[in-house]
Amino acid sequence: MTEEIEQVAQRYARYTALGAAVIAAVWHLGYDLTVTLTGWPAYRLPWLNVAAWLVYTAVFAVALRSLARESRGPARIRELAVVTLAVDVMGIVAIEPRELLGISDWAWGSIGWIGVMLVWGRPRWRRELIAILAANAAVMLAAMALTGMLDRVAISKYLVVIVGGITMQLGYTWGCHLLRTRAEDAVLLARRLAADDALRESAQRIHTDRLRRYAAIRDVAEELLQQLADGADPGDPQVRDGCTAGAMRLRRLITEREDVPDELVSALRERIEAAERRKVMVTVPPFGDYLPCLPDGVREDLLRAPVRALDGARTRARVTVSAMSTMVSVAVVADNDDLPVSAAPVREPSGVVVTYQRQGGEVWVNSIWQNPSPGR
């Protein structure tokens, strides 16, 4: 669910950016090019006007490339903004003075859309876009002043076209920014909800595990006390062994904790409890707090040989789990007479190395996995 919402947010960012490019492209091809070609005789310097159109196209291509790749404007915005404003000046110089703000004067209206593309997705887009639009308006006003077109009608026309253009360009940019912001808020909310769900599931699992341990502690204590209440002789070796095994099991159940559930530890504890139900005295030092994530197949290979040694223990066993960020080791020492041992270390396909050693009536099995790529 979270990934789907993130994809929706990415689509908002990408397609609103490309939407700005589509508007600029349609405007430049549909209006600017048509005016340039059909109004050729009306231009004082038509080739300068064509050069302005080509320079505008080049800046558009640079901005489009950045939007397509990163959904944001290019990094060298200052230089590109200066070139874009130069296009505005070239367009004004190319036309007759009487055509200022007329049909042939296409540059002033298109500059704003290039500005929208240049500032897209940038942290200071408001300030930068307003600066570009203000500079565009200032260039036009300066041209009107130089050509003596500051009469009441010309000023009114200037205000109408400038305000209209700025409203469209700022409105589109602000509206798309609002959409992206809302989409990003939705992603953050979805992540927070997913984290809450994971925390709730973890707490429920820990609570269930605690209830299981409490029940097991009660059963062990009840069984021992019931034997003594029924007249069992504390001096009987079998009773003493039973009490010792029960005390060790009680100690393990009281000290063990599983704040961060791990499948390897859970699987190993099931086999330890199975051995304890067979009256095997199992010594288990506290497991480590941190177990790294294991690749597929490693957990099974780590547990296979130690669990076989534990399952075959006759009266006693010791289970040890050691872990670091790049290594996990599971070792079992048990009085197991039936487990076949290998004189040489056994290397599993997953990278786990299993070492056996038999001495007297005990067998020692140690399986160890080391991360071949510690940095990953």
Structure description:
It is a single chain. With 376 residues, the chain is α+β, with helices and mostly antiparallel strands. Helix content is 64%, strand content 10%. Strands 1-2-3-6-5-4 form a 6-stranded mixed β-sheet. The longest helix is centred in the middle third of the chain and has 78 residues, at 152-229. It is rod-shaped. The two termini are 27 Å apart.
In short:
64% of the residues lie in helices and 10% in strands.
Largest sheet entry: 6 strands, mixed
Strand order of the largest sheet: 1-2-3-6-5-4
Overall number of strands: 6
Radius of gyration, CA atoms, in whole angstroms? 39 Å
Helix fraction bin = 55-70%
Gross morphology is: rod-shaped
Query: Which regions are unreliable across 5 or more consecutive residues at pLDDT < 50?
Result: none
SSE class: alpha+beta
How many DSSP helices? 9
Average pLDDT, rounded to a whole number, is: 84
> Strand-residue fraction?
5-15%
Order of helices and strands: HHHHHHHHEHEEEEE
Calculate the terminal CA-CA distance, rounded to whole Å: 27 Å
